[in-house]
Write a structure and sequence with these properties.
Layout: H1 13-28, H2 30-52, H3 54-57, H4 88-97, H5 112-124
Helix pairs in contact: 2-5
Length: 131
């Protein structure tokens, strides 16, 4: 049997096909990778929410003058309880700067990545059905 010691030429059709497949296949698995990253970010967001937000936004505290809104379903509506648009940018701004002395600002306390994780988590919170 004769074996060639020549390297494959870029002009051979099968070599071109292998190169194209080599470029395409890694991209096809990218979906599961990004979904995995997203799931981890949401889990981090859930933990951060419990640490920094749930004390006011998850439990009814009678010691507070004004009760903060429940954030379940916050992105299901067009507007936030404050009347501002329900967008990631507005929520990010609210987290960073706080709300009129009622909600403390978290700028400097939470990283940009942590805030993004919390916002991702908030998108997963669905409003509880009305009884």
């Amino acid at each position: 049997m004769f074996r060639s010691t020549r390297r494959p030429s870029a002009r051979q059709p099968w070599f071109v096909c292998l190169c194209v497949l080599g470029l395409l296949l890694p991209g096809s698995s990218g979906c599961s990778y990004s979904e995995s990253r997203r799931a981890k970010a949401i889990a981090r967001g859930s933990h951060l929410f419990e640490m920094h937000c749930a004390g006011c936004h998850g439990r009814r505290r009678l010691d507070m003058e004004k009760i903060p809104p429940d954030l379940h379903g916050i992105f299901d509506n067009k507007f936030l309880p404050s009347g501002r648009s329900a967008t990631d940018d507005i929520v990010r701004s609210t987290i960073l700067t706080g709300r009129s002395g009622i909600m403390p600002p978290f700028e400097g306390n939470l990283s940009d990545e942590s805030i993004e994780d919390i916002i991702l988590y908030l998108h997963t919170l669905k409003a509880s059905p009305r009884q």
